[in-house]
């Protein structure tokens, strides 16, 4: 029926936009909530003359997002010079000396440095691997190469890969495979992620032969 076809086509057009706006609105509400909580704490310790002004700020929608965004930009600008990097080292040293906290902080920092550093290799290359059994193929992403004690046992010709689940690629499996067992794809990481999230229904445009 044309009615059903048009309805589904319209849904496919607007659904990605609606979900994107929904995620952005959820993030805005989350940051606003954190900001309101912070202002509430300040009101408890600030003089009464300043409480009225702080109460006004609590009712400005989106102010939390703006302040967080500005804070990130300011922090990035400050640590981009020599003096700022010195303070960053001191800040890092303080946090790595706090019992219990340092264990979580070091783990999170290593992961974030690997994923977001411009010099890192995480999620820079899309791969084709056999998983969960020989003959069954799936999309994976190279995250680096084994290091330390693991590398001593495996040898030099291995790669570390992340195999995402679908349709939620934020969960997955970490594997270390022989380089000869993976196929490097020409598609971009964005194209590969789209392919995974769509469960194979949105295939990337072929951009040349693959290399093994």
Textual characterization of the structure:
The protein has 7 helices and 5 strands; from the N terminus they run H-H-H-H-H-E-E-H-E-E-E-H. By secondary structure, the protein is an alpha+beta fold. Helix 1 (2-45) packs antiparallel against helix 2 (48-57) and helix 1 packs across helix 3. The relative contact order is 0.06. The chain has helices at 2-45, 48-57, 63-78, 82-95, 101-116, 148-154, 189-197, and strands at residues 125-130, 137-144, 158-164, 172-178, 183-184. Among the domains are: 2-57; 125-197, no CATH class. The chain has a 5-stranded antiparallel beta sheet with strand order 4-3-2-1-5, covered by helices on one side. 55% of the residues lie in helices and 14% in strands. The radius of gyration is 24 Å and the shape is flat.
Write the layout of secondary structure elements.
Elements: H1 2-45, H2 48-57, H3 63-78, H4 82-95, H5 101-116, E1 125-130, E2 137-144, H6 148-154, E3 158-164, E4 172-178, E5 183-184, H7 189-197
Antiparallel strand pairs: 1-2, 1-5, 2-3, 3-4
Helix pairs in contact: 1-2, 1-3
Q: What does the overall shape look like?
A: flat
Secondary-structure element series: HHHHHEEHEEEH
**In whole angstroms, how far apart are the ends?**
47 Å
Number of strands: 5
Cα gyration radius (Å): 24 Å
Query: How many helices does DSSP assign?
Result: 7
**Can you summarize the main beta sheet?**
5 strands, antiparallel
Structural class determined from secondary elements: alpha+beta
- Give the amount of beta strand, in percent: 5-15%
Low-confidence stretches: 208-212
How confident is the prediction overall: mean pLDDT? 78
Strand order of the largest sheet: 4-3-2-1-5
* Oligomerization: single chain
**Helix-residue proportion:** 40-55%
